[in-house]
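My hope is that you will study the protein record below before we discuss the fold together.
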Amino acid sequence: MTLLLPRRHFLQGTGALLAAACAAPHRVCAAPTAWPNRPVRLIVVYPPGGVSDGMARVLAEPLSQSLGVPVLVENRPGAGGSLGMDALGRSAPDGCTLAFSAISPLTLHPLLARVPYDPLHGFAPVAGVMRTPVLVVGTPAFAGHGFGDLIALARSWPGAVRWATSGVATSGHMVLAQVRMQSHSDITHIPYHGGGPQLNDALSGQFEVLSTNVAAQQLQYIESGRFQALAVGAPARVEALPAVPTLAELGFERANCDSLFGIFAPARTPPAVVQRLNAEINRVLRGEALRSWLRGAHNIPAEGSSEAFARDIAADRRRNRELVAGNRSQFD
């Protein structure tokens, strides 16, 4: 015969059993499995073949070793990094999806166009990784010699000089906008979807000027005479290009900017996960193997706390807001 208990007694008994289980030495109600318990996806918001893609892949290998799970690189290029950051923002905040990006999708893109993510609250800055100087070169289509000739041509032939960047609202675009504004010249912007595709068109002379990252491949083209180095955006002259002036030396102080890249996670990622990732990334960045790679790529390590990375992002956002205000047409 089946014994039927009143519902109230049944619920009370169930609650007592659950409470006892949670208090048991083996902790039946223990916290979720420790992170990471599955592969980590690292979204690179730029195409394969560029400096940022190379850095992400160099970083992924030692990071996977320290985390004990594979770190799988996935390229999601487009809209100057906004498409990849949108994919990150839609991911679960469990520490298993990260993105490697410049900070411009958070600090400049939203000032110029609507973005499908929340640039202020949609992401958790994890760690700065590297700073990349901006290199301005003349392609085979550029008939001048030096940065002064570039400005003279742009003033004499409005719109005839074409300047390519890796996308709208990237650091290269910021340099172009500042140069156009300060020189009162009309230069046509040719935006690409990343650093790799624009190199092929630059070599074939599809435009006159290119702003790109300083990298070994670009330096080889300069040494062979296929590119003419016009200027760099950096705190000081680049060691590999001692004769090439900075934009500040040429009188374009506000155009003299570099690119800060780092690792991001979705908002609401557990702070313990962010802290662990920051510690592991900084440990890798301090290693000689990665520092050697960065030197070879003419980049500067940018290790530090997640809080320091967040402050750098906030400062860049303030600078860009001041720049764009009243000068919106320069960024078209």
